[in-house]
Amino acid sequence: QVQLVESGGGLVQAGGSLTLSCAASGSTFGINAIGWYRQAPGMQRELVAQVSSSDSTNYADFVKGRFTISRDKAKNTVALQMNSLKPEDTAVYYCNAVEMRATYVHHYWGQGTQVTVSS
Q1: Is 26 buried (19+), middle (13-18) or exposed (0-12) by CB count in 10 A?
Q2: What is the helix (H) or strand (E) element at residue 94, kind and residue range?
Q3: Which residues pair with 93 in a beta bridge?
Q4: CB 34 within 8 A of CB 20
Q5: How far is CA 5 from CA 11, 24, 60, 64, 112, in A?
Q6: What is d(CA 71, CA 85) in angstroms, rounded to the nearest whole number?
Q7: CA angle, 79 as apex, 75 and 115 as ends, to 5°?
Q8: Could you report the per-residue pLDDT of 89-113, keeping only the tens digit for each?
Q9: Which long-range contacts (CB under 8 A, 24 or more apart) does 59-67 make?
Q10: Does position 77 have pLDDT exceeding 90, yes or no?
Q11: pLDDT exceeds cutoff 90 at 19
């Protein structure tokens, strides 16, 4: 089992910045990728950014050039630096860890942290 705890959400004006942090604990040795998803009201949860165990990164097109994901393997933390925030970035942001094995894929989720961008 993996436990994920997010922090760093809040209210910011458009054009501002926020940094989200996620601390992973438990059986973290089995994590293949860790990152962030978001879900706005009435919308499906969507991938924002992800970093693999080999340190390759993957970003959604709508955040490329604005958000940066970073991982500290020694501390089992992952951060999302969000710059040039837009009102459409308003959502609950969830930390996500993926465990992939030959016969299954398991997703772990944090409790979510609210990010609100005012215009």
Answers
A1: middle
A2: strand 91-100
A3: 38, 113
A4: no
A5: 19, 7, 22, 25, 8
A6: 21
A7: 140
A8: 999 999 999 999 889 999 999 999 9
A9: 62/88, 63/89
A10: yes
A11: yes
